Amino acid sequence: MKTFKQYLSESVQPGNYVALDAPDLDHVWGTFGIKPPKSGSSPPRGDYHCTLIYSKDTSLCPEDSLQKLNSVGINYPILAGVSSFNVFDDGEKAALVAKLNSVTLHKLHDVCRGIGMKHSYPEFNPHITLRYGMKPDEAHAYAEYLNGNPVPSDGFHFSVALDNLRSETINEDYV
After folding, report:
1. What is the pLDDT along the chain (175 residues), one digit of tens a residue?
2. CA-based, 20 to 30 A from 73: which of 4, 90, 92, 133?
3. Residue of 111, 112, 102, 95 lying closest to 16 (CA atoms)
4. What SS3 state is found at 139?
């Protein structure tokens, strides 16, 4: 099974990211009464996370990033609700994600930007990847099925607790 670093190194340019660790979400399939998808792979245990910043600019220093962010005084755990399931699709491969609804995550993203970190995407979409490297049709079918299940009165399928801020440089040397 590929690690998140291996997946990124094969699918995008090297870069840097800042993320919060998320609980393993392998239970999602059983919770919704379905078998895991046949295509793609789930993140390995312990590698589920919510990315706050992903920058294709490799000048971000992981140690400096963590020091700056930790000085802000983040209170853990950060609770986020899974509001929907979406697909990030490049036409050949797709990722099935659990979209997170949390004002705190948006504030942390803004803090990252405010201390000079760059984000290489036009929008910040807080999420946890459930499966990557999927066939697009299968990913969209799973998202449709998962979103078709009733949502409790709080508007979330379930909540997750995020903690342990991490920052890493991703390149062929896995620095």
Report:
1. 444 445 444 445 567 788 999 999 999 999 999 999 999 999 998 999 999 988 877 666 777 878 888 888 888 999 999 999 999 998 899 999 999 999 999 999 998 888 878 888 889 999 999 999 999 999 999 999 999 988 888 889 999 999 999 988 765 433 2
2. 4
3. 112
4. helix
User: What are the beta bridge partners of residue 35?
Assistant: none
Which residues have a Cβ under 8 Å from the Cβ of 118 and sit 6 or more positions away?
53, 55, 57, 60
Contacts of 1 (CB under 8 A, 6+ apart): 41, 42, 44
Backbone angles phi, psi at 113, to 5 degrees: -65, -40
Q: Is 43 helix (H, G, I), strand (E, B) or coil?
A: coil
AA letter at 153: S
Please name every residue paired with 86 in a beta bridge, in sequence order, or none if there are none. Answer: 97
